[in-house]
């Protein structure tokens, strides 16, 4: 049994990056942009309504305040400011999730904040403080062994290990930066093979060939990966044919 998550609601005004409606027919969890790297009130409301109708778990994808850089530029944000901004994003999404008859079920940082919280204990602690400030012991989706998960566990929040279907890994189990070769997988066959290996607890290859075992309860397929909706449908169908159940963790 494994969860399949994707980033949704990554648009702003008339501009739309992700095929939300198509992805919602395949994923079990939706990481919804909360307005800081993408997303706006209308988009957030629409995605929450459609996710709730499809029985898809809604998660807050919180980010640095970086619309121009799509949240992929690292920033030095004071801990108190970051905690408040994380709480603000969760609270905004919660309004729309509850109006749709659902709720925010978990939190996942986006982009530069996600990667920063792998090793930066201070920023990780600020994200966790923001989650607690927003209220409730929401599960935290992130990289196994990250400072984010350490801080979440210390605060009594559930942690959920995540692995990536379409990203390259370094030998230490961290993600290859998008600026480096091998950061993105674009071959559908390789992506599907990666999903099977992770779901079965088998080894996958790092960018240099080093074998890695990626313990994960959730698989991430980026919504802006070329052909993401088709890939999601294929992953769901082929995992199901192999008696691997797709189910939200929250």
SSE sequence, one letter per element: EEEHEHEHEHHEHEHEEEH
Mean pLDDT across all amino acids: 96
Q: Determine the strand fraction and express it as a percent band.
A: 15-25%
- Spatial strand arrangement across the major sheet: 6-5-4-1-11-8-7
The percent of residues in helical segments reads 25-40%
Rg, rounded, reads 17 Å
- In terms of quaternary structure, what is this? single chain
Rounded to the nearest angstrom, the distance between the terminal CA atoms is 13 Å
Helix tally equals 8
Low-pLDDT runs: none
Q: Assign an overall shape.
A: globular
Characterize the main sheet: 7 strands, parallel
In total, the number of strands is: 11
Structural class: alpha/beta
What does this structure look like?
This protein is of the alpha/beta class. Helix content is 38%, strand content 18%. The chain has helices spanning 20-23, 41-54, 79-99, 111-119, 121-134, 147-154, 188-199, 228-241, and strands spanning 3-8, 11-12, 15-16, 29-33, 57-62, 104-109, 140-142, 159-164, 203-205, 211-213, 218-220. The chain has a seven-stranded parallel β-sheet with strand order 6-5-4-1-11-8-7. Strands 2-3 form a two-stranded antiparallel sheet. A two-stranded antiparallel sheet has the order 9-10. Helix 3 links the parallel strand 5 and strand 6. The chain is globular, with a radius of gyration of 17 Å.
